[in-house]
Design brief:
With 76 residues, this protein is mainly α. The chain has helices at 2-17, 21-52, 58-75. Helix 1 (2-17) runs antiparallel to helix 2 and helix 2 (21-52) packs antiparallel against helix 3 (58-75). The longest helix has 32 residues, at 21-52. The two termini are 17 Å apart.
C-alpha cells in the first residue's frame, strides 16, 4: 500500500508541476504496476487461505499453485 500511495502522490505532484506528458505517463505505468502487485498478493492469499488451506488433496493444492502462477503472469 505504501508503494502504491507513493506512486499516486508522485503523479499528483507531477501534474501540479505540469511536467512533460511522457514523465506523467511513466508515473502512471509505475502506479499500475504497484496496483497489479497488490492485486496479485491479495489473490494469492485468497487462494491459499480459502481454496487450499487446509489442502484437501495434493491435486487441489497443485491446481491452486498453477492458478497463482497464471495470475502472476497475467498481472506482470
Amino acid at each position: 500500500m505504501s508503494r502504491l500511495r507513493g506512486q499516486i502522490e508522485a503523479i499528483e505532484r507531477a501534474l501540479e508541476r505540469e511536467v512533460e506528458c511522457a514523465e506523467v505517463l511513466q508515473l502512471i505505468a509505475s502506479a499500475r504496476g504497484a496496483m497489479n502487485g497488490l492485486m496479485t498478493e491479495v489473490i494469492e492469499d485468497h487462494i491459499r487461505l480459502h481454496v487450499v488451506h487446509p489442502p484437501k488433496d495434493a491435486e487441489r493444492a497443485r491446481g491452486a499453485e498453477e492458478l497463482i502462477e497464471a495470475v502472476q503472469s497475467y498481472l506482470r
